[in-house]
Design a protein that fits this description.
Strand 7, helix 3 (121-135) and strand 8 form a beta-alpha-beta unit. The protein folds into 2 domains: 5-71, Beta Barrel (Ribosomal Protein L25, Chain P); 79-276, 3-Layer(aba) Sandwich (Alpha/beta knot), CATH 3.40.1280.10. The radius of gyration is 21 Å and the shape is elongated. The protein is an alpha/beta fold and 280 residues long. The chain is 28% helix and 24% strand. The chain has 7 helices and 15 strands. It has helices at residues 22-31, 88-100, 121-135, 149-154, 186-193, 237-245, 261-276, and strands at residues 5-7, 17-19, 39-44, 48-57, 62-71, 79-83, 105-110, 142-143, 147-148, 161-165, 184-185, 205-206, 209-210, 225-229, 249-253.
Length: 280
C-alpha cells in the first residue's frame, strides 16, 4: 500500500498528536481513503521524516499520532528559479517541476514582455507543497511575491551567480538576433562554474584532489546560484543588455531550437542539477 506523505510545519517528536487542517484532512480521508489505524509519513525541513498513524478519521477532521523517526532532514542545493509567469497551466507546470527538481526558492519576475497580469503566489505555495510531499524532499520551496526584473537586479546579492537563458544573438536585423553574440552552451558554462574531476570510484581522492562524498551532499554545496527564464517572446533588448553587463550574470544557450518557457525551465534545471547540484 502506498503510504501518504504529509508536510507538517510543527515540531515533530515521537508520541506527538496533530489535528490536520481542512485540506490535509480532505486529501488523507477523501482522496487517499485512509482511516483509523492506517500508516502515514510526515516531514519537515527541521525534523526530517517520521512514521505516523491515523488515530481519528472523519470528513471533518483527522488526527495523527507520531511514531519513530524514519529519516533525518537533508537540504537541497542553494538554487533559485526566477521566471516570467506565462499562461496559467504552464506556470503551474513550472512551479511543480521546479519543486521536483530541487529548487530552494521560486521567484516570479515581471519583464517587459510578460503577459500574465495576475500572479497567485498562494496557488504556487499549494502546488509546491503537494509536489514536495510526492517528491520525497524535506522542505517546501520558498515562494516570493512577483517583482519587476529591474528591481530584482537592483537588490541582487552578488555572491549568487545568476544564470539566464539567452536565446538571442546580437544582430537586431536577423531573426532571433542571428548567429553573432550567442551565449555559451549550458554545459560548458556550468562546468566552468563548478569544475569536477573525473571520478574513478565513489569518494576518496584523485591526484591530490578531493572528490565529492558518496552521498552527493557536497555537490554544489558552496555554489549559490539562480536560473532566470524569460517570458514568451524573450527578453527585451534593454533587459538583455543590462543582464549581460552585470558581473554576476552568466548567459547560457539551451541549443539551436527556441524552447517554450516551461520547457526551458525544466531543461536548465536538469542540466544544472546534473553538473552542479545533487545528482552525483
Amino acid at each position: 500500500m502506498n503510504i501518504p506523505r504529509l508536510y507538517l510545519d510543527q515540531p515533530l517528536s515521537e508520541g506527538s498528536e496533530f489535528r490536520l487542517g481542512k485540506d490535509d484532512t480532505h486529501y488523507l480521508v477523501t482522496v487517499m481513503r485512509r482511516g483509523s489505524g492506517d500508516p502515514v509519513r510526515v516531514f519537515n525541513a527541521r525534523d526530517g521524516e517520521w512514521q505516523a498513524g491515523v488515530s481519528e478519521a472523519s470528513r471533518k477532521a483527522a488526527v495523527l499520532t507520531l511514531g519513530p523517526q524514519l529519516r533525518p532532514a537533508q537540504s537541497v542545493p542553494d538554487l533559485d528559479l526566477l521566471f516570467a509567469p506565462v499562461k496559467k497551466a504552464r506556470t503551474d507546470f513550472i512551479v511543480e517541476k521546479a519543486t521536483e527538481l530541487g529548487v530552494r526558492r521560486i521567484r516570479p519576475v515581471m519583464t517587459r514582455f510578460t503577459q500574465a497580469e495576475r500572479v497567485r503566489t498562494d496557488r504556487f505555495q499549494a502546488l509546491a507543497k503537494e509536489a514536495a510531499e510526492q517528491t520525497e524532499r524535506f522542505d517546501i520551496p520558498e515562494v516570493f511575491e512577483a517583482e519587476a526584473l529591474d528591481r530584482v537586479l537592483d537588490d541582487w546579492d552578488e555572491s549568487r551567480v545568476l544564470i539566464y537563458c539567452d536565446e538571442a544573438g546580437d544582430d537586431p536585423d536577423a531573426p532571433w538576433g542571428g548567429d553573432a553574440g550567442r551565449a555559451g552552451p549550458a554545459l560548458e558554462v556550468f562546468r566552468a562554474l563548478h569544475p569536477t574531476p573525473t571520478l574513478p570510484s565513489r569518494g576518496g581522492s584523485q591526484d591530490g584532489v578531493s572528490l565529492p562524498p558518496p552521498s552527493g551532499e557536497g555537490r554544489g554545496g558552496g555554489l549559490k546560484a539562480a536560473i532566470l527564464i524569460g517570458p514568451e517572446g524573450g527578453f527585451s533588448p534593454e533587459e538583455r543588455d543590462r543582464l549581460r553587463s552585470l558581473p554576476f550574470v552568466r548567459a547560457i544557450s539551451l541549443g539551436p531550437r527556441i524552447l517554450r518557457a516551461d520547457t526551458a525551465a525544466v531543461a536548465a534545471l536538469t542540466l544544472w542539477q546534473a553538473m552542479c547540484g545533487d545528482w552525483s
